[in-house]
Amino acid sequence: MPKYTQPKKTWFYPVNFKIKAVELSLRDDILSKDVAQALDIHPLMLSRWRKEYREGKFKKPQCYQSNTNSELMSKVPTKKELNKIKQLEKENDRLKVENDLLKKWQRYLAEVHQSDLDSSKSTEKP
Fold this sequence. Notes:
Elements: H1 15-25, H2 32-39, H3 43-54, H4 67-74, H5 79-124
């Protein structure tokens, strides 16, 4: 096992970001899994934030709110966009399967062609 020379990267999220993420995940029309995926965080992290939110551990700070929070939250897709993403993911999976089948068929044809060449060479010898 390799020895790590630098410490593991730990991400810190502002309280406002956590609160907005939790409030989005609590909406009825959006799944928390989709919110986590859109924000590029692990669903278990969002689940932990939701628990902390219920317990009242998050307090909205009265001071400066960074622009990065609003930029990150503006990237959260709507329900329509999430449905479109799911549809595109299904289509992508289907196309991958088709592509794999075509590759297998191409290998099969190459093997048949090679065996035909080999058998024709062996029958041509006087």
